[in-house]
Amino acid sequence: MTEMRFREAVRTAIAEEMERDASVLIMGEEVAQYQGAYKVTEGLLDRFGEKRVIDTPIAEAGFAGIGIGAAMVGLRPIVEFMTWNFSAVAFDQILNNAAKLRQMSGGQLEVPIVFRGPNASARQVGSQHSHAMEHFYTHIPGVKVVAPATCADAKGLLKTAIRDDNPVIYLESETLYSLKGDVPDDEDFTVPFGLGRVAREGSDVTIISYSRIVHVALEAAETLAKEGIEAEVIDLRSLRPLDEDLILQSIAKTHRAVIAYEGWPYGGVGAEIVDRIQRMAFDELDAPILRVTTLDYPMPYSAALEQHCIPQAPRIVEAAKKVSYRE
Amino acid sequence: MAKIVEMPKLSPTMEEGQIATWHVKEGDAVDVDDLLAEVETDKATMEFRSFDKGVLLKILFGDGAIVRLGDPVAIIGEAGEDVSDLVAQAEKAKASSDDAPAAEAPKDEAPAATPAPPAPSPASGGASAPAVVASSVDATGRVKASPYVRKLARERGLDLRTISGSGPGGRIVARDLDGTSAGSAPAGRVAAAPVSREPEVVKLSMMRKTIARRLTESKQNVPHFYLTIDVDAGPLVALRKQLNTDLGQLDPPKKVSFNDFVVKAVAIAITRSPTVNATFTPDALIYHRRVDISVAVAVDEGLVTPVVRNADQKSLVQINEEVADLAGRARDKKLKPEEMTNGTFSISNLGMFGIDEFSAVINPPEGAILAVGGIRKEPVVVEGAVVPGQRMKMTLSCDHRVVDGAVGAAFLAELRKVLERPTQILAF
Question: Which of A102, B133, B170, B328 is the most exposed, fewest CB within 10 Å of its CB?
């Protein structure tokens, strides 16, 4: 185990996989000469050279497409979006090429590519740069979507993503990059897709979350514990595929659920989870499932208003008490 | 042309009605004034008659449903007519009645004199927590319970109808089952029918809601004070005995009760001391010139107060027959609303139940109520000597806003004079 920051865990995974497999490369804006907009790729240019650590123009549709083409002919590209917001201009490449080619070619083509970068809110980056993009990407059959909350999972999930023979959407968080945590040193340490983890055990209410909001949910759970409500916090880690078993086991224990995440309330990952719970655990529910989401507005620039819109611990506490009939 | 039939106003104060029984079914021809259904209002079970001629095409609420005033209950038209549009329109309006359990609690707290607030629209009322309702059983008999509770109830053999819910809108949630256990009998014993230790939950009848609302309103809004007298009932007992002996000779024989004497005596005392026969309103004091005595009558579900009109102008026998008729129809829930409203003074008599004295709650908008105790045989002092005597206590509850202490006392003094020299009761 080595204690390191989240950005270092991501970098370690990239470096280890580049060492392990010569077909792995990384490309994106400022990943090489500038050492990464968020210093995730710091040092990689020196280690692996400019053929495998490639600065691109500001042209997401172009370099996403180049990455997909490279993957189709046998390389394993990692495409960094400076933030996931910019993937919007590359959406057609991801939706129509990355996600479709295996099926449309009858299995003759595969697209082993990882798209990664920081997702959702940062601090005052405005309405156009604060999107939680997983709600768009989890909609698509043909891609896998993962969102680590811890440093160990950052490494383990990224290594699994790079080794996967399908397109993977890997979501980081600008405000998680400085998080410190223990990371296994094992170069073959991977975290399989489709397995969540119990971040905190509890018996009274299940709080389901992923990425940065797992930490907010844990903070809420501490507050709830002081009021006699023991919350179980589930870190999904993987949004597609989704760990249904873990969710259902927890609901069978607590009989009530709150789902907390960044993104607008209409539809999205939370609504999908609500659907699965009500369908597969209807008889276990003692209360309607509640979601704590980003409020239904374009993100305000004002720091106070931004914090008001983003899910905060008090809102999770309130929802957990409501489903526990403890208002 | 088909039309929607709405819940009519069958009593002056009704805000909703519960359909007791439909007397026609879908497809039946109906004529003007045909009996459609019996409807339980806050006052009585009323006949709901048709204003239209045609065919009953659709019943929108079945027996037992509670429907708000003016909401659609049925569709009448010509045989075979397509009523799908009207049904859709009715369904929309009906939503307010479906929401009634949630809307009821706040509404019932509103004073009777002010119009009920509109039921919350489904849009605003749907998601937010509705007001707490004691019973989890809604008007159609459906129990509101979480899916998990239903699963537990199946496993434990619980009857959810016996459990009250603490969740929103009376929903039964898991914590409401704490302390209930599997319905199975202890091992080794012959399984007997499990005796539930849960309280029996009785849904509020329309009458019970009305009693709760009106009496709470009275006690909260009317400043009550109480004056008690203890009258010598000896002459009254003797007079009644003699009178009933004489009335018993008639064909058919007649009989009068102590209560009839009290009603008439009160009416006479009111004519002599009329300021207790009054109503407080925010703008003015109303002193009634009519003497309409409300008589509290116990019935199965609670009590009602039918009114003996112009009691000062009626004989004891007339009063007796009228009270017997009103009380009998009250027990059958056949009183018309107008027979229970617009009294000016109330009498509540619990003497026949062995009560010596009590204080009654004023029946607004009346200004006073007389609570009559039973006649007691007890030693009394007459001219310095202890002798056997008979006494009757009466307590007047007064609305201090309109009846002051001296006014109430003056009335009771008149009443004492009438009751202690009771032959005059026969004269007026």
Answer: B328
Shortest CA distance from A323: residue in chain B: B167
Residue B191 is predicted with a pLDDT of 44
CA distance A67 to A61: 10
Residue of B nearest to A284 (CA): B148
Measured between CA atoms, the residue of chain A closest to residue B166 is A325
Using a CB–CB cutoff of 8 Å, tell me whether B164 touches chain A.
no
pLDDT band (50, 70, 90) for residue A38 = very high
DSSP string, B327-376: HHHHHTT---GGGSS--SEEEEE-GGGT---------TT-SEEEEEEEEE
- Contact at 8 Å (CB) between A233 and A207? yes
Q: Of the candidates A282, A284, A287, which has its C-beta nearest B173's C-beta?
A: A287
3-state SS, residue B378:
strand
| Domain coverage including residue B341 | 222-426
Domain-embedded: residue B205: no
| B78-112 pLDDT, tens digit each | 888 888 888 888 777 665 555 444 333 333 333 33
> What CATH number does residue B142 fall under?
4.10.320.10
Q: Closest partner residue to A282 among B147, B173, B175, by Cβ?
A: B147
Query: Residue B148: which of A285, A325, A327 has the nearest Cβ?
Result: A285
Q: Is B166 on the interface with A (CB under 8 A)?
A: yes
Domain count of chain B?
A: 3
Q: How long, in residues, is chain A?
A: 327
pLDDT at A285 over 80: yes
In the structure, what pLDDT confidence band is assigned to residue B403 with cuts at 50, 70 and 90? very high
Phi, psi of B419 (to 5 degrees): -75, -30
Q: Which residues contact B259 (CB under 8 A, 6 or more apart)?
A: B295, B323, B347, B349, B351, B372
User: Angle, to 10 degrees, between the axis of helix A6-20 and the axis of helix A151-163?
Assistant: 30
Q: Which of A60, A172, A174, A262 is catalytic?
A: A60
Would the CB atoms of B148 and A327 count as touching at under 8 Å?
Answer: no
**Predicted structure pTM score:** 0.53
Using the Cβ of B174 and the Cβ atoms of chain A, whether some distance falls under 8 Å is answered with: yes
Distance between CA B273 and CA B416 in Å, rounded?
Answer: 12
Chain A contact for B175, CB < 8 A? Answer: yes
Catalytic residues of B: 400
Q: Is residue B215 part of a domain?
A: no
Q: Which neighbouring-strand residues pair with A290?
A: A258
Q: Which domains does chain A have, with CATH numbers?
A: 2-183 (3.40.50.970), 197-323 (3.40.50.920)
Distance CA B396, CA B417 (A): 16
Spatial contact of B58 and B71, defined as CB atoms under 8 Å apart: no
Rounded distance between C-alpha atoms, residue B320 and residue B317, angstroms: 5
Q: Quick check: is B266 in a domain?
A: yes
Closest residue of chain B to A325, computed from CA coordinates? B167
Alpha carbon distance A146, B208 (integer Å): 59
Tokens of B304: 């009602």
Inter-chain residue contact B146 with A282, CB threshold 8 Å:
no
Contact list in B for residue A290 (CB cut-off 8 A) is none
The reply to whether B171 and B263 lie within a common domain is no
Q: CA-CA distance, B244 to B248, in Å (whole number)?
A: 6
Residues in a beta bridge with A157? none
Residues B376 and B421 in one domain: yes
Q: Which residues of chain A make contact with B150, given a CB cutoff of 8 A?
A: 283
**Continuous segment of H or E residues that includes residue A144:** strand A144-146
Amino acid of residue B116: A
Q: In this structure, is residue B238 part of a structural domain?
A: yes
Q: Is the ipTM of this complex over 0.90?
A: no
pLDDT tens digits, B132-152 = 334 577 667 788 899 999 999
Residues B7, B16 contacting (CB under 8 angstroms): yes
Given CB atoms, is B173 within the 8 Å cutoff of chain A? yes
Q: Are residues B235 and B384 in the same domain?
A: yes
